[in-house]
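COMPLEX REQUEST
Ligand: iron/sulfur cluster
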Amino acid sequence: MFCYQCEQTIGGKGCTKFGNCGKDAKVAALQDLLIYQLKGIGFYGQKLIEKGEKIDPEIQKFMMDASFSTLTNVNFDPERFIEYLKEAQKIKEILKFKTKGIEDNIPCAAEYILPDNEDEMLEDARKAGIMYDDSLDADIRSLRQTLIYGMKGMGAYAHHAHVLGKMDETVGEFFFKGFSAVTNDNLTVDELFNLIMKFGKVNLKCMELLDRANTEINGNPEPTEVVITKKKGPFIVVSGHDLRDLKELLEQTECKGVNIYTHSEMLPSHGYPELKKYKHLIGNFGGAWQEQQQEFDDIPGCILMTTNCLQKPRESYKDRIFTTSIVGWPDIAHIEEVNGKKDFTTIINKAIELGGWTEDEPEKKIIVGFGHNAVISIADQIIEAIKAEKIKHFFLIGGCDGSRPGRNYYTEFAEKTPKNTIILTLACGKYRFNKLDFGKIGDFPRLLDLGQCNDAYSAIKIVLALADAFKCDINELPLSMILSWYEQKAVCILLTLLSLGIRDIYLGPTLPAFISPTVLQVLIDKFNIKPISTPEEDLKTILGS
Ligand code: SF4
Ligand code: SF3
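STATUS: Structure written out below.
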């Protein structure tokens, strides 16, 4: 196997025998073969799009879901990948039939026929491997992989928008354009780079679509206090990013005496009016995803994993963790949608049987819910505070968490920011420091949480609104982006920020292994992207003192 798609890749180079995430060589091979199939589908689909034909929305959905399934920490179940592979073959044949007559330059991925036998699939997967063609130019490989990882991230966001009833043709069609492009040997480094910038803009559309889906259905997040301590009674902890799953579970647990806790990226759910109205959405449990094996150990309740990031379940909670949607782990109970509904009876009954915590902990709270609507509604006060020099600078500390010790940088950075600066947080990197007290500036808490990584659109909307208010370029704002990456959703967000021309982003804890030295130099030259150094040094560079 060879995989270098995430930040915890072994030795900062690539996982070759077993993934640090828990992915084994078999699943890695099946995922490679699935991406190969998506390239083949992309080729035929793009030909149809160029002829002015529409692609069936079900096929578009398959492209987003299949891409999402290969994202880090989502699905580890070989059976599910074999199903996807078979479905991919059927779709490819349908599209191939519709494009009858194309004879030249058909890529191997398009011509490939999936065998029935699993062993043969695993054998074939070798030629789908990232490093299979060792004569491929390093920069072309780097840019192709960057685009594929971006599309995996967008697959996740498009999936979330789709389950809430929203689809967009430009977004749906990009999967064909992008997967087709990575099979095209004629594309130059410049052409691939330009396509990646176009992708960044398409991903912005996708994030806007998801924001609309979340807020039209659940209302605009509003500042809300969230209990972060345990309450007596049976419970289910909901992890991941899927607000529809959370809502369905809240509906089905009403009056059942089962408390619902958010975990990790589900924390911002407490700010949505249509979710917080459920009194048994009782609080938030635990920290970021990489703490789950300790936090779930012997837990007297159930866990529902709705999306990434799932780690290998320990024996002590294997019988009480459930997956749903695209997420999967072999031999872990999976709740599937049937006729547009999910039946959560099994997990609810199991939670009741386990009995839950036996007493209340002394209560502690934090505040969430500063999405774009909440922040923009107090824009006048923020602008006044900036003009009066009460607020000197904004730091967007956003992105993923992970287990690398270098990630302490983000906590230390937040702690060292001057008292007259505001910290905006986004995604799961904040769980290391969001329970600390940063104080207030006037009426504003110094730490304002914008939401999940899925809410990156909020950050972009706020930045654009501030630039508009000050009649300046976004790069002239007193705002710095200090980003941490781990998986491929962070890749697509970063590409969107770059496509908007945002410069001087600080990126860590390490740089992606799939970025070649030449591509990195292009990013430095065009966007002045900077690897993080120390909090002191970076703060000094940013604030100039
Ligand atoms: Fe390694 Fe990350 Fe790939 Fe898992 S997803 S195999 S940890 S590079
Ligand atoms: Fe986190 Fe997995 Fe990236 Fe949603 S939950 S940001 S890592």
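REMARKS: The pocket of iron/sulfur cluster (ligand 1) is lined by residues 3-6, 8-9, 15, 19-21, 23, 72 (CB under 6 Å). The radius of gyration is 23 Å.
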